[in-house]
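User: Quick one: structure for sequence A, then sequence B.

Assistant: Sequence A:
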Amino acid sequence: MQPKMIKIAVIGLPQSGKSSLTKALQTLADQGQQDMHFVEVYHPDELHGHAFDVVLQVVDSTRLEESLMLTPHIIDEQEKIVLAIGRYDLLLKTDHSLNIPKLEQLIGVPTCRVSVRLNYGLPNCLSILQQVAEQPTSKAHPIHHLRDQADEDTYRAYVHGILTETLTHAKDDQQQTRLEKIDKVLTNPWLGFPIMMAVLYFVFWCTFTLGAYPQEWIASGIELTAQWLNGLVTPSWWSSMLIDGVLQGVGAVLAFLPNIIILFFFISLMEDSGYMAREAFIMDTIMHKIGLHGRSFIPMLMGFGCNVPAIMAAKDIQNPKDRLLTMLMVPFMSCSARLPVYMLFVDTFFERHKALVMISLYAIGICLSVVFALVMKRTKWFRQEEDDTVNELPTFKLPKLRIAVAHIWEKVADYLQKICTVIIWASVIIWALEYFPNQDLNDLENSYLAAIGQFISPLLEPLGFDWKMSVCLLTGLPAKEAIVSTLAILYGGDLSAAGFTPLTAFTFMLFVLLYFPCVATTVTLRREAGRGWAWFMVFHSLLLAWVISFIVYQIGMLL
């Protein structure tokens, strides 16, 4: 009889793609011909209704107390669990040590130490998982009796007591390392926020300055390719579609790939070093002013990469009202899909103040999300007492280049996949609507595209947008990068000669910032929060985008 496959849920890992620990355990199990299948989950609720044989909870050795707070919630869904003390080498580097046998005895859960970087403890972890999976279910966990009659604060005190008995601190706990001294400066109440703004300014400055050269090379390569194809093929509808549609549309988006790489390189460094968590710590006071806490800032930070995983990450917030409000705040964050639009206009119209204009767009999104939260907190759906949450900061460390490269590749692959699917199809559709019915790109005013644009343009004329700009906003619904390809097809390479001014450019960027990110974000919000809140996000974002853009444009015209 063939042995049953052991299905193992791995929980406690950051939600940023399949982790190196999960991959290493799966590879080791496959090599040993052990019939195990590892599945990553990110919240105890995801365990409900799934037939997992055992749960592997990964406990961050640098955040022991916060990690162990998740354990009783896991036991609510699955009796058989194993603790894996991850990144144990980092704990040893600080001259701390953890008494594993004593920890097992006090918390009642089998425990092992693992380190993927040192290839340490993985075979032992697999062995423990197999033993626990094959044992009969037991309810002998000491925390069972506690969680049945205690609240979160009592359990936190219990965890603190366990660590007091099992965690041995360094002999000289007062001695500060160089990184600890830096950490104190970065989280200083007076210096932390200015430093954070200076770091962001430097990141955007590097994104534009260093990315300008390869961006220009790619743009020149696209232009030379277009000239070569024009001399090679016979003029026809399909050659026009290839050159004026696909090549120009895709090339306009592809030119910003170097900037994307540079930006996410810096973001990866900030995440891996622990500085992102310090930004959340710095923002904790501000978040409390609007009735939330620093934990809500983490999904908002993730929203600068992509709003979809950011909304999903908000599931880790225990308070249901705070969880929903955070999900509704995420779309205000400028995701990476909006970045090519910003770069195109900032490069063209704000040559001397590129980084400043970029920071202003991100700051406007954050400020409006705060105002939105303040308003919503006074409605019957979100009114509640403030919920204080203690946040542990991960160890501040030097980032690793290998992790940065892996993070960049993940984002580049996603960007290229979007170019090869959504952007190509959007470029072909826009070209077709522009080319037909007269089969002449020079007769744009009588095209199907002009008819669509002129139908919706009365709504956007008070914002300074012509019908072409209105069409660009429509094509941004499936993916914001499609706006850049549409601009390239409709206006060619020179926006300054096509009726745009710095005022209309900034107003256009504001509208792109504020109207709902994309269809995928809306679908994700519908799945996590319900249909009503998804439609609420769509309509309130459109209304807010129109009102703010109208105010900025009209005031700008007066000045």
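Sequence B:
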Amino acid sequence: MKQSSKNTSGQPAGPNILRSLWNVVSLYRDRVIYSLLFLILAKIATVGVPLMLKRIVDHLSRPETIHTLPVLILLGYAILRFSSTLFTELRDLFFSRVTQHTVAEFAQKTFTHLHELGASFHARRHLGGLLPNIDRGTAGISFLLGVGLFTLVPTLVEIGMVLAIMLANYSIGFTVVIAATFALYTGFTLFFTQRRAIFQRRVNRLDTNAKNRLADSLINADAVKYFTNEKLEARRFERIMGRWVDAAVSNQKALFILHVGQSGIIAIGVASVMLLAGQGVVSQQMTVGDLVLINAYVIQICLPLNALGFVYREVRDALINAERLLELLREKPDIEEPPGLPDLQLRQAEVAFEHVDFQYDPGRPILHDINFTIPAGTTLAVVGGSGSGKSTLARLLLRFYDVGAGRITIDGQDIRSVNTASLRHMIGVVPQDTILFNDSIAYNIAYGRPTAGRSEVIGAAQAAQIHDFISSLPQGYDTPVGERGVMISGGEKQRIALARAILKNPPILIFDEATSALDLQSERAIQVELDRLARNRTTLVIAHRLSTIVGADQIIVLEQGHIVERGAHASLLQQDGAYANLWRLQEHGNLVENS
């Protein structure tokens, strides 16, 4: 099986994320262009405000004009301020669909990709940590598109325009001081933000660990109560949170140094510019309006400069948060199916395992030279001890994994040579552990065939001997089953799984210890329906209770991944081997249970 590395491309996450963002954003080129146009207009209006303010101050400072009201200039000042806000809001309005669509696209892409990943990924993943990683990743993408793009670009535009005006109208000393302040601020921010990223990654990692621990503990809440280990769980969680607190405090210390340093650099730059401007007014080389203009521009630059530092920090954090999301999207499925494979062409539904070997991990062989055929319309049962490889046969037939050697065929077609979706469409499964969606009973039954109507759902429930139970509930078929079906019993969940299979009505069936959650009375009641469902269908039965497979056309016995016996029930008893021993043990257990 293929395992993906942490960064399969070997490239930094930032460029990969930005490239992926552009691929989605480029679908909205017109909106992006309009948004950038409004952005530039907003900044032109913002830079024009101090110029208009200078004219107002100069007009009202001259003795010859102090008694006249500059109405047009005052109106222009108000219009410019309003225009700055208007164009900014128009920018956000036009770009909102781009942002929301991109976030939704990444969320949908991640959701789809997770379902495409194989069984080994889902076996090792931690749901408590997976969900926060996805949440932080999509939030990071939203920031990169919205605040990141529309703070970084306009800030650079504004600083460039202000420097051009200062250079054109005032001594080069002002431009040199502002440029030096900008350069020092940028270098300081880049250096200390890079150092702080180490702490941010550690905080994220510990936060993910805490979520994993929390989810795992709550999922197993019954086990915690069985062993009265509430205090043990609390202590374990407390230790994780203690490490998280230490990491968060270290992160805050790094942020403190960053903020204080940035503010100090800005203060030095502002002081230097204002001293130069004050000297110019005192020496009568500049007017009071010039002082007001320079002061407004310095403040106007410092605010976005401070915002630029914030954005850079947040962009770094957003890229860190999006790294794991990108890693998830780079995870490779266990089985990479080439495009264009034909659908499975079913003729008789004969299933064959031909000299199959399989191992989940190197050095851990599960199946050895498994060779059997299930003729069309017949039932083959597999029995054996725990860990003998019984359920692995079902996973291989469904192509959750590929065989290590040999092949599996249906009507002579190697299942690796056909479309996996068409393969699974032909197979119905009643698993040992039925996991239900946190939805209604009707929804969970109809999951076997989502297009089925309510009458078909009821018919499947009747066939599975669960209709009377459902009808007795206050909400009937609309009764919610709770998360993982915790609000109904194991036997009822098993019957719902059977109803799903009945509704799907497939030509090939897999019963993976389908009656393991039922008592003997319920088992006998439902076994009749199982036999009826299996009639004229190719059926693989993974059996725990041998009484359920007495009528199977063929039984094979697995021991440590090898077939040690095969035959019908009667012939296997006559052989007086492994199967006969299992039969005697279970018969004795039934006698004890019934006595």
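The longest strand covers residues 351-361. DSSP finds 18 helices and ten strands in the chain.

User: Thanks, that's what I needed.
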